[in-house]
């Protein structure tokens, strides 16, 4: 019995407008900077028009990427609320590509922007096995103090009673054709701006490390410390960190060179340490594990994996010959692909936008 499981940071699936760019240029779209906007009312009118015109192409591509996953269960990051999720599922996934999901679960989490994690599920797998959702539980209220995780690094930006998860850890108990499976859906703290001589990744790593420790705590509390290896569970989502990357050298005129680089430290080491979970993407070639292209100009470009389906040891053993798939057709043309990995993009894809997302959906067929 098999299950198609996917995760995708759909990016800003919002049901509202953001007008904060009128007073904060850091939040202002680059298009509006080209125009002389004289009043806040004019800015709001233009921002509404820009957002609506841009969103339809974006969501068509997001829907195509999800359809290409053909997943029985889809874990999403950056969904605004249930209303936005339902509107997207009905108007795009179901009406546009005939690939809808009747079961939808979203609990409002901690993100200050209001973006949440969500789970969409079919009623049956592709081979006709019933998908039952037994319980959905949020862990958004856990604090550093609750788990005794507070330390000097966290004290630079946080207090002991602050919540650990910057969005949530959504625990979803399932029964697939009568067999148990538990999903933990997360979206870890993003990499912020450089601070105190550290780049954005290092400056925010303590926050993600605490989130990773909290996920382990939640799972070990559920199944028992030292008794998780034979349980059937997966951790899905955008971890906003990586253990390796592919550095991109060169330029368009003279060609590119792709250089693998292993990180000395990562917040994700907490999950992979002692074989607690396995990253099946390591079964792919080293240049072909990326789900995101990062660029801050020609001096800082790399490909990396931010999106994960971590498997419990038991689930990994049962699927030892299976390899995750990555859907990259929604990537903008500015993404630099290693030779042999090029794909045919979706219609109307732009140099930077429109696009399905900066993230690539990750999907895996699993024997349960």
TrEMBL record:
Endonuclease/exonuclease/phosphatase domain residues: 66-359
Database matches in InterPro entries: Endo/exonu/phosph_ase_sf (IPR036691), Endo/exonuclease/phosphatase (IPR005135)
SUPFAM superfamilies cross-referenced by the UniProt entry: DNase I-like
Protein name: Endonuclease/exonuclease/phosphatase domain-containing protein
Record-linked Pfam families: Exo_endo_phos
Domain of life where this protein originates: Bacteria
GO molecular function, one term: catalytic activity
């Amino acid at each position: 019995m098999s299950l198609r499981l996917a995760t995708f940071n759909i990016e800003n699936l919002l049901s509202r407008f953001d007008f904060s760019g009128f007073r904060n240029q850091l939040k202002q779209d680059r298009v509006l900077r080209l125009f002389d906007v004289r009043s806040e009312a004019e800015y709001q009118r233009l921002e509404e028009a820009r957002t609506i015109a841009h969103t339809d192409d974006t969501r068509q591509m997001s829907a195509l990427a999800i359809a290409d996953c053909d997943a029985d269960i889809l874990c999403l990051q950056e969904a605004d609320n249930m209303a936005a999720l339902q509107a997207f599922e009905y108007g795009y996934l179901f009406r546009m590509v005939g690939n809808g999901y009747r079961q939808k679960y979203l609990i409002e989490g901690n993100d200050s922007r209001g973006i949440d994690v969500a789970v969409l599920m079919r009623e049956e797998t592709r081979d006709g096995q019933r998908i039952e959702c037994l319980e959905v539980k949020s862990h958004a209220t856990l604090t550093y103090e609750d788990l005794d995780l507070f330390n000097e690094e966290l004290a630079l930006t946080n207090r002991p009673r602050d919540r650990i998860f910057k969005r949530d850890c959504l625990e979803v108990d399932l029964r697939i054709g009568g067999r148990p499976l538990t999903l933990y859906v997360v979206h870890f703290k993003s990499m912020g701006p450089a601070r105190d001589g550290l780049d954005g990744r290092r400056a925010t790593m303590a926050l993600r490390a605490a989130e990773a420790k909290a996920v382990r705590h939640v799972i070990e509390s559920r199944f028992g410390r030292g008794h998780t290896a034979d349980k059937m569970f997966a951790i899905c989502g955008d971890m906003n960190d990586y253990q390796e990357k592919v550095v991109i050298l060169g330029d368009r005129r003279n060609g590119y060179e792709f250089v693998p680089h292993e990180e000395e430290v990562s917040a994700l080491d907490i999950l992979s340490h002692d074989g607690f979970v396995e990253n099946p993407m390591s079964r792919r070639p080293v240049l072909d594990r990326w789900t995101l292209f990062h660029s801050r100009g020609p001096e800082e470009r790399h490909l990396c994996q931010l999106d994960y389906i971590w498997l419990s040891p038991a689930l990994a053993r049962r699927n030892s010959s299976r390899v995750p798939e990555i859907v990259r057709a929604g990537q903008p043309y500015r993404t630099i692909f290693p030779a042999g990995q090029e794909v045919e993009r979706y219609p109307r894809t732009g140099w930077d936008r429109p696009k399905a997302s900066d993230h690539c959906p990750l999907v895996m067929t699993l024997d349960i």
